[in-house]
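ZP: hey, is the adenosine-5'-triphosphate complex queued? I don't see it on the tracker
AM: it wasn't, my bad. submitting now with these inputs:
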Amino acid sequence: KETVSKNFIEQMIENDIAEGHCETVCTRFPPEPNGYLHIGHAKSILLNYGLAQKYGGKFNLRFDDTNPTKEKMEFVESIKADVAWLGADWEDRLFFASNYFDQMYEAAVNLIKKGKAYVCDLTADQIREYRGTLTEPGKNSPYRDRSVEENLQLFEEMRAGKYADGEKVLRAKIDMASPNINMRDPIIYRVAHMTHHNTGDKWCIYPMYDFAHPIEDAIEGVTHSICTLEFEDHRPLYDWVVREVGYEHPPKQIEFAKLYLTNVVTGKRYIKKLVEEKIVDGWDDPRLVSIAALKRRGFTPESIKMFVELCGVSKAQSSVDYAMLEYCIREDLKLKRPRMMAALNPVKLVIDNYPEDQIEYLDVVNNLENPELGSRKVPFGRELYIDREDFMEVPPKKYFRLFPDNEVRLMNAYFVKCTGFEKDEDGNVSVIHCTYDPASKGGNSPDGRKVKGTIHWVAAKTAVKAEVRLYENIIDEEKGVYNEDGSLNLNPNSLTVLEECYVEPALGEAKAYDSFQFVRQGFFCVDSHDSTPEKPVFNRIVSLKSSFKL
Ligand code: ATP
Ligand code: MG
Ligand code: MG
């Protein structure tokens, strides 16, 4: 569904176009290659890409790789894969901020020449002390008034490797009394003797984020640099940098509120712990909300797009209910996926009056709400698996499924009437017996006889044995996110593994990431790590019932 009203970013962009501040809109997604992307990043990706699309502009994928300590090349590939999977096409506009180190250095030298930057010898602690507080202005550094010549020489020496890490920094000369602490002569370059994954040992000084980011945007011709709310206070510095460095078409920074989801873990620190303690099966465990995890669970790019659109863009911090994400994947798959039969908790049903070795192939419509999906042949025989919950020895009121002497419909097949059952040594029902009415083929009886229950089934002889994994949220916020000791209050039932399920033979051929509806059970996706042709593994994406209403 289209939203009619425009969000505040769209309004701003349209104003900028109307007033002639920008011709072609250019946005970017600027990940630091230091981890896997998550649902929050998906919002940023789709927002930036969507705006570029909407205004006929450009979208850049730029790796913000200016910090050599935390970054790893392996993340570059995973991030590219995730962005591409979401459908955000950067075409030939893939950039690396580290390729701009020369220009950044030059920009810094020019600031020095203009008297707008100086080399400072204060220690990190002293700089913090001199910076002042929210209520107290800062103090000028004793090195603030160094001559341009001296600054140029010292900065060149910093670059040449003469100083140890932390010995000297380059600072912007702005205003130590500014009410905005970010403007109190922020550090723009630091010494760091480190090998960078792209530039190797060429540099031993690296630009700080607040200096580098606006320059990256300006070099690429970004018009609207969209970031999250915590950078609002940095915007005056962003503007100062693009102005003082002297860009003719300065980009504009716009902030919006981060996306938070309830009942999931998004903090990297916590996820890392869950991975290390093997509570989850890696960064793409289907209970997590990294993009890789959502993909493995069976979410589609379309469902994530619908989700971020429903969330909207705002300046107000809030958390979105995980159930809304579930709503989106249900909506997306509802008409697109065939409805198959699977017995997750199987028990045998024997039709005693059905010919012993006969297998017949019944026509089954793939999706009653979408005739375009056609139909398939499903084998039926004397022995079937049904779900244990579909039989009760002593039924409570309003139980319309199988129980002794009751007649139900086997979905797409025949009416069957329960004639008895057997139990194993432990007293569990092991076999249910019934008879069928051959005249009720297709699921209706010519005499107009009605049954109240319809149950699904899988023919035993041709069934494929599969593992099915059922999930619950890893956190239940109503029970509290944290324990007293600060650790996460994890839901012990977040994963249930059903090792002996039986599914239709067609599902034996499913490939990784294929998804299906299992009638009455939800939507399921073939697990990309563990599924094999010999033993398919299905992850439940979402059940059919929802607590969420739009
Ligand atoms: P994290 O700490 O979760 O990795 P980050 O801000 O460090 O987040 P970056 O790689 O620097 O991650 O971010 C890339 C882009 O994604 C930035 O523009 C950032 O604002 C945006 N982003 C990060 N988290 C969210 C979120 N929860 N909601 C919306 N946008 C986000
Ligand atoms: Mg990050
Ligand atoms: Mg960041």
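AM: back. Residues 440 and 449 are 9 Å apart (CA to CA).
ZP: great, adding it to the tracker
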